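dude i think i finally got it to work??
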Amino acid sequence: MRLRNRAFPLLYPVLIITIIISCCRPAYPSEPIPSITADAAILMDAGTGQVLFEKNAGLKKPPASTTKIMTALLALEGGDLQETVTVSPHAASVGEASLELTAGEMLTLQALLYGALLESGNDACVALAEHIGGTEGNFVLLMNQKAKLIGADSTSFKNTNGLPAADHYTTANDLATITRYAFHNQVFKQIIGTRNIIIESSMGTRHLSNTNRLLWSYYGADGVKTGTTVEAGCCLVASAARDGRKLISVVLNSDDRWTDSIKLLDYGFERFESLRVIDQGAVVGSAMVEEGITDEVMAVASDELDVVVPRDEEVALEKVVSIERQITAPVVKGQPIGRITAKINGEVVGSVELVSDRDVDRMPNYRLFWVKRNFLPI
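look at this
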């Protein structure tokens, strides 16, 4: 039932406004699309999730030790950094790249994370998994569940460290997606950007050095993880930040993972730039309120929205604003009442919720009764 006279009829429950802006910029010397040796690769903007380059990005490949990104993420989410972990005989027996842990040795969970991510300790990963999940098998189940939850749908983990195993695979796109999610964890970001550290255990100290050479050689490099096996070849998930932007590159089975990664990162920083679509708190429209002590609330952006666009191309930036035309009191400040979506050349590249800018209490019952009696439907 309509309780107030309106200046216009409520024909639709949602108001949709489309604004198309042609973004023109002076031409810059165009960076050539990078030619890389990797079998599969991707370049993703970490802020927006936009894919800036891809080569066989959906091809399922063995990931080698880049697997440890997910292992570390789950250990961070499921454990306490200062918990003491006792290394089991099984964990101590894991070979290949290792910290040479011994059965019964005790370390903090944090120390094992540094060992897993900096020096790619396979034994450290198993020790973490057993501590968090009881068994490595239980922990691997959690890894696969987490992958699906964050959108890495083409990933199958069979162990925690990336040692060769049947049906242990992922894609360049999934690795970038997992890494982008992991960047929300501040401790993860701190660890992967560490070049050298000394960790302690009940057996003494260990000097660890990060296997990611880009941390020493590429301006802005701040992660992430190497991976190497005969089956997977040379792999690298790399990240770098410059001028408020962060990029994630992934190369799988590369003849030169360092050069490939540098080419991708350079391409992303030099060819693309960030464009602000809307500021956090900006008023986008309004929604009418029924049964409230005020008639209207403003729809404001819940967060800033940026997109990445090529520097030297004209693009059509489309803003689609969807707002509920009518909401019923009570309304809470910050309550979702719509969404603004950005499209570039017709492709959705990002969106943020629109929320109410204020609280609106419901009218007392006696006032509602009076309104209904005197302002019945027009």
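Residues 18 and 108 are 54 Å apart (CA to CA).
im so relieved honestly
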